[in-house]
Amino acid sequence: MKLRPVIKALPIPLLGLLGLGSIAAAETLTYGADVGVAETDNVTLAATNRISQTIAVADVDFDIKQQTRLLDLDAKGNFSDLDYLQGAFSNQFVGRFDGVGKYALIPERLTWVVQDDFGQAALDPFTPTTPNNLEDVNYFSTGPDVALRFGPTYFLNMSARVARAQYQTSPFNSNRVLATLAGGMQLSPNSSVSLNADTERVLFENTLLNTDFDRTNAFVRYELQGARTDFSADLGATKIEQGGESTTGPLAKIRLTRKISNAAKLVVSLGRDLTDGASSFSNGPGGSAGVVSGPTNIVGAAPIALTSTSYTSNYGSVAWQYTRNRTTISVGGRWEKDVYDHAGQFDNTIEGADFSVERRLTHAFTAQILGRLNKTTYPNGIFVPENTGILPTGNGPTVATQGGSSHYETGLVGVALVWHHGRALEVRLRCEHSSESTTGFDASYHENRVYLTVGYRPRPADPQEENDPGAYAPG
To answer: Please, are residues 234 and 219 in contact by the beta-carbon 8 Å criterion?
Structure first.
C-alpha cells in the first residue's frame, strides 16, 4: 500500500503552528489513525456494468485547540489514503484541513493571523464523484489584526490579508488582497454594535478565461454573547466591479446558537451574499449536521467551482445537536440557491438533510448510524442524450452536457459497530449504501461499501471504570 506520510498533506504555512510544542501544550487534543480494507461492488459508480474492487485504507484525523496569552490555535484535519488493489484507479489521497493560528505580537492590540483551508472539489457537476472527477483546492491567507480601544465603550478594529487560491486542475488560481475596518461600541458587557467595511481585490493567473474583480462590503453588525445564546446579524450591501461592469446587491447574515439544555444545542444560519467559488470553499464543506468524525470517513467534496464569476448566494440551515452520557445525536437541514448574473446556465438550487446517531452500548462497544440526502437542480441547463451527435445549444452548461441531467438526488446511509480495547485500540466495521438518481437521461447508480479497520484512538477514561454510578445513565 502506497501510504504517504500524513505530514506531507498538511499545508506548508501551518506546519510551524502544528509543531510538537504546540501539540504538547494544547488545551484540547483528539487524534486517531487506523488501517484496514474496504470492499465495494461499484467502484466506478456506474449505472450498468458494475465493477467490484478491494481497497486498502489508511486514515488519520486530529482536532487541536490551544489558547494562551500569546497563541490562539484551532486546527482540524481528516485524511484518507486509498489504494485500489485491482487497479480501478491510481492511489488516492483525500481529506479536509481547516486551521487558523493567531499570534499576539502585542497582546490585545496587534495579532498576526495565518489561516489555511485544504480539500477536494469535484470537477464536473454532472457525473459521479469518482477519483477521476476530483481536484485538490487550497486557500491560504495571512496578515495582521489591529484592535484599538477608546475607553471602556468604543473600539476600532482593522485587518489586512494577502491570500492565494490554488486549484489543482481548474484554471481559477488567484492572488487576493483584503482589508477590513470596523468601528463600534459596547452596548453592554455581552453585546456590541459596529459599522463595517471591507474590500477585496482578486487577480487571476489566467486572464484569458477569468476577469479580475473588486468586491466591497459595507454593513452594520450586531453581536450578542449570552450565557445560553450567541447571536450575530449583518445587514448592508455588496458591490462587485468586474470587466467594466458593476453589480450591487444586499448583504444579510444571521446566525443564532442557542443552548437549549445542558445536552442540546440549536444552530440556525440565514443569509444572502455576493460571493465566488474560492471564498465559498474557504467557508468549509459538509452538511448542516457536520461531517461525522472517525476512521474510514472520506470527507465530502466541496461545492464545485463551475466558474470564477461571482454569484448571489441565498442560504439557510438549521442543526440540532444532542450530547449526553452515552448518546450523541446530530440532525440538520440546509437550502441554498445560487444565481449567476452573467452565466445563468450555472444557476442551481441545493436542498439537503443529514443525521448522525452514536450510542455507547457498553464500555467496549459503540454503535453508529448516519445518513444524508441532497437534491441539486440546474433550472437553466440544456442536456441531450449521449452518442446522438447532437450538441447542446442555447445557454446550457459548458461541460458534461451530453448524457447529463438537470436534477440530481444523492443519498447515503451507513451503520458502524466499534469495539474498544483499553484506552486506545479499536476495531471498526462500517457498512454504507450510496445512490444517485436523475431525471431526464438516466445515469443513476447504487453502491455498497464495507470497511474493516484497526486503529489507535486514545479516548477519555470510561466513567464506569472509575466507579461513576452515572456512567451509563439513560440518555
So the answer is: yes
Does residue 1 belong to any structural domain of this protein?
Answer: no
Residue 471, domain member (yes or no): no
Under the banding of pLDDT at 50, 70 and 90, the label for residue 373 is: very high
Task: Enumerate the β-bridge partners of residue 330.
Answer: 321, 356
Contact 14, 7 (CB under 8 A): no
CATH code, domain with 89: 2.40.170
Question: Contact at 8 Å (CB) between 118 and 11?
Answer: yes
- Cell numbers for 43, please give them: 467502484
Give residue 475's pLDDT.
53
Residue 473 lies in a domain: no
Q: What is each CA distance from 79 to 97, 369, 418, in whole angstroms?
A: 8, 21, 19
Domain count, the chain: 1
Whole-model pTM?
0.82
Residue 197 belongs to what domain range?
6-466
Tell whether 231 is covered by a domain: yes
The single-letter code of the amino acid at 227 is A
Amino acid identity of residue 316, one-letter, is: G
Rounded CA separation 91/108 (Å): 46
- How many residues are recorded in the chain? 475
Question: What mean pLDDT comes out for the span 160-174?
Answer: 94
**By the 8 A CB rule, do 389 and 369 touch?**
no
Q: What would the pLDDT profile of 256-297 be if each residue is shown by its tens digit?
A: 999 999 999 999 999 998 888 888 877 754 333 333 333 333
